[in-house]
From TrEMBL:
This is Outer membrane protein assembly factor BamB. It holds the Pfam family PQQ_2. InterPro entries: PQQ_rpt_dom (IPR002372), Quinoprotein_ADH-like_sf (IPR011047), WD40/YVTN_repeat-like_dom_sf (IPR015943). Residues 1-27, 242-269 are annotated as: Disordered. Residues 93-252 form the Pyrrolo-quinoline quinone repeat domain. It comes from Actinoplanes italicus.
Amino acid sequence: MTMAVIDLGDVSDSPAGPDDYPDGGRRRKIDRAAAGRWIRGVIAAVAVLALGGSGQPGPPVLHQVWSTPFSDMDAMTVLGGSVFLYRSVPGGESELTAHDLATGTTRWSRRTPGDPIWMTTLPRAGVLLLPTGEELVERQLPDGGYLSYVHSGRLTALDPVTGEQLWEHDGMQTGEETGDSLLLFERAENGRLTTLRLIGTRTGAILWERAAPPLAENVAVLSEAGVPSRVVTASNEGELTMSAFSDGRPQSSGRVPWTPVSAASGEGSQLTTAGGRILVITNGSQQSEVTAYHPDDLRRLWSRVMPGWTYAETCGPLICLGASGNFTSAVDPATGEQRWDFLGNSFNGIPVGEGRLLMSTGDTIPSQAILHVATGRQIGPSVPGYVTFRDRGTGSLMLLRGLYPDPERNAVSRLDPATGRTITFGAIRVTQGRFCDGADRYLACLDSGRLVITAVG
């Protein structure tokens, strides 16, 4: 049984009641001391019952379990029951340390060359990825602008449990985790792709390695029925090449309408995939055009115009087209026919269960909504707050919501995506952009130069 304290404010000067109240429109005067004794007695009785008759108060719902210094230049991520801190140390090196999320106990630590840039996790395979040796290159374009991109670099994969190095390869990761394999690519200094390489996610074994198609600068992985099937590349002239994901062999190619990206404005075409279709999105400041092509023969299937900058992603059986201004249109992958619209942006980065979709609404004060993917019908009310992480065990989402007038005070709540119901636990302090991560019942948040771990419940 859980008890909540509700702040009712100052009620010492209660207003007069309506004229039809007894005693001439005035509420009967209450003996405050007697009322206070009565209320305290009821609360004590309920508390004893809630605690099984022990009479002892329970632990706070939110409580800090440990903390450690943490700066704006450091990196942090959570995987399983560990939190990984990637920090600069004297001597031009970085130190990566794994701590037990619940206790703060150090599990392992290792040094790496250079400054910490970022790190990422591959939860399905149980791998921690670190980049090293990346170089930023700026290239002047014909329109006078400059295009900045990262080339070279090397990826190191670690076992998150032991810190042992699993493999090391030149290149960068493309797309999201695809199960037991990972596609890497390398670039030349002029920005063009040079090498494509498919490796085993845990072993690092090279499954295939091929030279990228001539003049290719963009690469994406096409999945069909949730399984990677093709590697798609595009040149800056719109030359598309499809290769088999399994062995890298080229299958077909062709040219589609393409607008080179302007470094001055950022407008132009980009390659992506969603819903088993190859998509070319030509972004503009006022509107964007999304064109879908069949992966077998590059046959043009449909085209849609969206307001402002647009992105696309797979939303169950549909494709979600998200536009600036918090607007999402869900369309049929085969025809482009609109199925539903929603004033919000889809958040596929955090899955919420089969047939359901997480949508984020609002700009300055965001809220979260759970939708049925096929119909766009909302499940439960919208819930204010930012999503920090998804509990893999229960599927619930942990949310933070800034409390006026102190933006660093944040309410902590849990949203059940199956029912749309929410439980609020209390409030914690979070600084540095409300950045938090977590797992199970633990929140890892930044607060005034420290990483603070809070237990929920």
